[in-house]
Amino acid sequence: MTFEHPSFGRITDDRVFIFDTTLRDGEQSPGFSMNLEEKLRMAAALADLGVDVIEAGFPVASKGDFQSVAEIARVVKGSVVCALARSGGKNDIQAAGDAIRHAERGRIHNFISTSPLHMKYKLRMEPETVLEIITTGNKAARNLTNDVEWSAEDGSRTEPDFLCRCVEAAIKAGATTINIPDTVGYATPEDMERIFSMLKERVPGADQVIFSAHNHNDLGLGVANTLACLRGGARQIECTINGIGERAGNAALEEIVMAIRTRHDQYPYTNRIETTKLLKLSKMLSTTTGFDVQPNKAIVGRNAFAHESGIHQDGVLKNAATYEIMTPESVGWSKTSLVLGKHSGRAAFRDKLAALGYTISDEKMNEAFQRFKDLADSKKVVYDEDIIALVDDEVRDHARIRFLSLDVSSGSQRAAEATLVLEIDGEAVETTANGNGPVDAAFNAIRSAFPHDARLALFSVGAVTEGTDAQARTTVRLEEDGKMVDGQGADADTVVSAVRSYIHALNKLLVKRTRSEPESLLAE
Question: Is 312 annotated as a binding residue?
């Protein structure tokens, strides 16, 4: 199979395109949200990773979404920047076209439901009306860009004959990529391979478009279904970093890419992903969203290359291939992490940040370096993980609220008291509060300085590295009117770490307050 694609040129059958939807589908997850600076940082990292298509957002959803898609389209180079739109949305396609107008390469991705269940109860439309909308929607998109993708929402539960008619209509109307998503994670690998094989065989023009797979993980089959789609003829994979997304999430980018690389005998395909940067992206996303991956997460979990069993340890020491099917270094893990100490200077610190993949402003650099020196004074050794934790804390755009200082007194014989200084909208605010322990007192001080009704739904504490002098990494979850966000913070002082995580979550909640989304947002 060879043909010319408007964004990628000549397409060969062994090429697989990676379509990342972390910034769109991933951000729809409860508790996940990113502001403009965080999205720009993630988009730049995704482009650097080698992602072919970055789905930047849903421009018609809000002014904030439009702005973020437009800015990503303006600054990102090397990747196609994609904007989502409903095929029949009144203003969706025009908004998407406007948002990607200045992209080096731009794509409009439009969708409509095609399953009997969705058409009857969600759309309340007859099949013929859906076919008409597919035609008009894709024609409208093609008038704005030559790279158009169309998705059959709930495609895996769509009747085969009707699905063929829908795909044919989309291709005739100008779609250059056809996506068949397993929207609710219902399908099995056998189902997905059969669907793509059928479409490739039955639909006129199928050999002149890229078929795409978008699989959700409700039954834990997202990655397996995606690999099955490749067998059926799909050559674009829609996925997210860490597998984030609606409900149980999407197929994880890092797992799919490493499955193709490790089992090239089964999946003889090529892609542009620089796998040594996978761990960096995973950690960046976890820090930005406040959601850590579980320790046993494939590829990027901290136990992914850990061996506790004596038999396993013995085998790995003799030959790593006995129990490791890929090397830790191939995905970004480092064998050594002991690096800097209290005598290290600014130049060495900057070099270390560059080696870890960070480029930050002079102002942020100064703040991070001062925190590093404070940490080095209190710890015997400083590890890469320590530096990553404190730098991630500094590079976040803290928006309206910033932590300045905290003084806490507590003990078994008296109530805890916290004196907190925050910068709120550029002005320093000092407040004192009591509580049932130092963390409770500190959180009460935050509420006093910045009154709000959000409920504390989760507070957890972990250690960045081992030892009693390890930095604490804390997670705070806030809930307000059905909106849920997670924040993270790190510091050698557990209470300070807790305050940093609360402020991170509160800033994210303020961003969420400004966002409004149209009905029928759920796609793919």
Answer: no
User: Is 1 among the domain residues?
Assistant: no
Do residues 230 and 274 touch, judged by C-beta distance below 8 A? no
Cβ contact 499:406 at 8 Å? yes
Burial of 62 from C-beta contacts in 10 A (0-12 / 13-18 / 19+)? middle
Domain of 500, CATH number, reads: 3.30.160.270
Please give the Cα distance from 364 to 368 (Å, whole number).
6
User: Does 25 show up as a binding residue in the annotation?
Assistant: yes
Size of the chain, expressed as the number of residues it contains: 524
Instruction: List CB contacts of 88: < 8 A, sequence separation 6 or more.
Output: 112, 133, 136, 137
Query: Binding site annotation covers 5?
Result: no
Cα four-point dihedral sign 22, 28, 32, 36: positive
Full-model pTM: 0.82
Q: 252 and 186, same structural domain?
A: yes
Measured in degrees and rounded to the nearest 5, phi and psi for residue 66 equal -60, -45
pLDDT tens digits, one per residue of 224-263: 999 999 999 999 999 999 999 999 999 999 999 999 999 9
Q: Are residues 94 and 145 in the same domain?
A: yes
Binding site annotation covers 452? Answer: no
127 class by beta-carbon count within 10 Å (0-12 exposed, 13-18 middle, 19+ buried): middle
